[in-house]
Specification:
This protein is globular. The protein has one domain: Endonuclease III, domain 1, CATH 1.10.340.30. The protein is an all-alpha fold and about 190 residues long. It is built from 11 helices and no strands.
Length: about 190
């Protein structure tokens, strides 16, 4: 069950994220060292450039050619070459392990939150924090009701928090998430 997302400020990019589980998963993968809006707008840019957005097409794309697609202006990511390889590895895993359907990661076999977290952690480009944030995004914004998802997502699963993309519902909440992230970075620098 997918719900309308408002992450990028671009209606078409947000519509893709809202309707395509792979786009949301790739957006999460891209969410590092760039603003959230840029990362999550990436799948929309790729769809426009490729004419489609599916795991097999991306996984099978010739790597140098795919890196060029990522580099086209405006670039999909600040580091288009290395992120192209990560996107292709993620899509290859979705094809080989989940039949090309990203939503199977959180729905196949009716998994609980801990199992979904384990599956996300096993994906290329996903570590513990990214997996927890994505699990919270699924639970808070995409209607995933797996038992124990809130616990498995840790602090990112807390209702009323403004820690991550999982907490963005409008421009105001985006500003709150950004302020929380900036405060955490400042605190880490002091430590």
């Amino acid at each position: 069950m997918l719900h309308e997302l408002h992450i990028t400020g671009d209606a078409d990019a947000d519509a893709l994220l809202s309707s395509d589980p792979l786009a949301l998963l790739v957006g999460m993968l891209l969410d590092q060292q760039v603003p959230m809006e840029t990362a999550f707008a990436g799948p929309g840019k790729l769809k426009k450039r490729l004419g489609t957005f599916d795991a097999k097409t991306i996984a099978d794309y010739e790597p140098d050619a795919f890196a060029e697609v990522m580099k086209q202006s405006p670039a999909v990511h600040r580091f288009p070459g290395s992120m192209a390889a990560r996107v292709q590895a993620l899509c290859a895993a979705v094809v080989s392990e989940w039949g090309g359907h990203a939503d199977q990661i959180w729905s196949k076999g009716n998994p609980d939150g801990a199992e979904i977290l384990k599956r996300l952690n096993a994906l290329p480009g996903f570590g513990e924090q990214k997996a927890k944030i994505f699990l919270a995004l699924l639970g808070k914004r995409q209607g995933v009701t797996a038992a124990g998802w809130e616990t498995a997502a840790g602090a990112y699963g807390e209702e009323g928090s403004y820690r991550s993309v999982a907490d963005i519902v409008d421009p105001e909440s985006l500003l709150k998430v950004r302020a929380t992230k900036q405060a955490a970075k400042a605190a880490a620098k002091k430590a």
